[in-house]
User: What shape does this take?
Amino acid sequence: MDPVRIAVVGAGVVGLSTAMCVSKLVPGCSITVISDKFTPDTTSDVAAGMLIPHVYADTPIPKQKQWFRETFDHLFAIASSAEAEDAGVHLVSGWQIFRSIPTEEVPFWADVVLGFRKMTEAELKKFPQHVFGHAFTTLKCESPTYLPWLEKRLKGSGVLILTRRIGDLWELHPSFDIVVNCSGLGSRQLAGDSKIFPVRGQVLRVQAPWVKHFIRDGSGLTYIYPGISNVILGGTRQKGDWNLSPDAEISRDIFSRCCALEPSLHGACDIREKVGLRPFRPGLRLQTELLAQDGRRLPVVHHYGHGSGGISVHWGTALEAASLVGECVRALRTPTSKSKL
Assistant: This one.
């Protein structure tokens, strides 16, 4: 039986993890990852990589929790293995702090992260402007390290990597039998999806090796995330802004806000600015579409629109996308269904 030819479009954390899950879960396939941008030039490379979920309004909470748990368990296994350094995955403890008591004192993901509890009065003394907080241990996934590690593993399992700009998904027909669209913001053009838009994020990467705990304001707008080789300070959420150039005034504001939470950051050095455009849409798109044109048919699995929460759920949603790919493969191989596909 000839292998089913699958093209995965997009090489950020969503595209690479989807290719990995398909290669593991869907037998008898040849997989090619196609993108015009690979690490270190993807949106994922700018992401802070902290596993603290973003809430998707259109997705049931049990489903979001499943995605987060599957991702957490996957990365926790890596962090607990000899691969941890090469993969750029590690545990980090810290605080999420609030200026007023949140309506939801215990978030849905509290029993997925490690050691979740309310902050003590003694801990809150460090943050005099805040009245409530969570203390917990989570994972940090350093994309500039994790993405090359994923690429290496994909190549090792026989997945082809192709640098090419795609202007229309039909370009991939008839060379491929199934397309998996993980193009993020590229889906405005590739899927004709006007619902997806950028939310600009600007961060600073600084040297401050004495900072060991993460600090996240409850709004998620100001954060200090220590990593393996630097500390990430953030951030911004600028809807509809496509500008990839750093803004010096915004950088000063981010630095000021972070120093207010952690005054020792005044001693940080080697400050570098980074900008990424998060692919937001009202609901994460994870579904199959059958494209038809002039008697031709092309099954497409859409997997995009993760916004600021991609790394927190990437493995869980990739497993679900791989399951949809598996359904497409079975349909192609079933003679009675070939007429439908």
In short: The first helix runs from residue 13 to 25. The two ends are 18 Å apart (CA to CA). The mean pLDDT is 95.
